[in-house]
Amino acid sequence: MNAFLQTVADNAAFLLTCLAIFAGLVVLAWIVERFLLPSRRHLSPAKTISFVAMFSALAGVIMLFEIPLFFAPSFYKMDLSEIPVLICTFYLGPVAGVVCELLKVAVKLLLKGTTTAFVGDFANFAVGCSMVLPASLLYHCKKSKSMALVGLAVGTVVMAVFGSAFNAFYLLPKFAQLYGMPLDAIIGMGTQVNPAITSVGTLVLFAVVPFNLLKGVVVSALTLVLYKRVERLFFRSAQPKAQAHSTL
C-alpha cells in the first residue's frame, strides 16, 4: 500500500511539474510578445487557432517517425516534429509556438501513447521550447533570412545546453524513478553503445549533447528550406496583400 501511494505521489508531482513548466513558458512567451515584439503580425482568433491546430497535428504525426542514433541509447531517438512548430512560431509568434509544442505531444500520445512513462514526451516539449522560443524571439525582432539563421543557430545552442542540464539533473533521474529502471541500468545501456559512457555526466556529454546539436542543425536547415514554400501554400491568403511577402 505504501509503495502504491508513493507511486501516486511521484506521478502527481511529475504532472504538477509539467503543468507548472507549461504555464511558465506560456507566460514567458506572452511577455515576450507583449513587450518585445509589438510589431508581430496579428490574425483573427479563428485563423490563429486554425493554423496552430493544423501545424500541431502535422507535428504530432511527424513525431511518430523516430530515427535511432548510433551514438545514443535506444530511448534517445530523433524526430523532426520541431519543423512545423518552428514554421508556426515564425509566422504567429512565441505563444503559438509553445501551444503548438504542447498540442503536438498530445496528438502523439493519442496516436501512440508513451513508452517512457511520459518523461520522454515531456522532455520533447520542454527541450523543444528551449529552441523554439529564442529562435522566434530573434526572428520577430528583425524578420530576415539572416536573422532567421541567427535565431535558429542560437536556438540550437540553447537547446543543447538546456537539454543537457535538464537531462542530467531532472529527466534521467525522473525516468529511472517513474519507469522503474535503476539509473545504473540506464547508464549501462549507454555503455553498450559507447564504452566511454560510464556515468550520468558522460551519458549527457557523449549522447545528449550530440543528439540535440544534430537535431538542431537538421531541423534548422529544413525549416529554412521549407518556410517560404509553406508560406506561399498556406499563409498568403491569411494576410493583407500589402503584407504578403516572405522574409525567409
Automatic annotation (TrEMBL):
The chain crosses the membrane at residues 12-37, 49-71, 83-103, 148-172, 203-227. It is found in: Cell membrane. It holds the Pfam family ECF_trnsprt. It comes from Candidatus Avoscillospira stercorigallinarum. It is a multi-pass membrane protein. The keyword Transmembrane applies. One of its GO terms (molecular function) is riboflavin transmembrane transporter activity. Keywords: Cell membrane, Membrane, Transmembrane, Transmembrane helix, Transport. GO terms for cellular component: plasma membrane. This is ECF transporter S component. It comes from the Bacteria. Belongs to the prokaryotic riboflavin transporter (P-RFT) (TC 2.A.87) family. Its main location: membrane. The keyword Phosphoprotein does not apply.
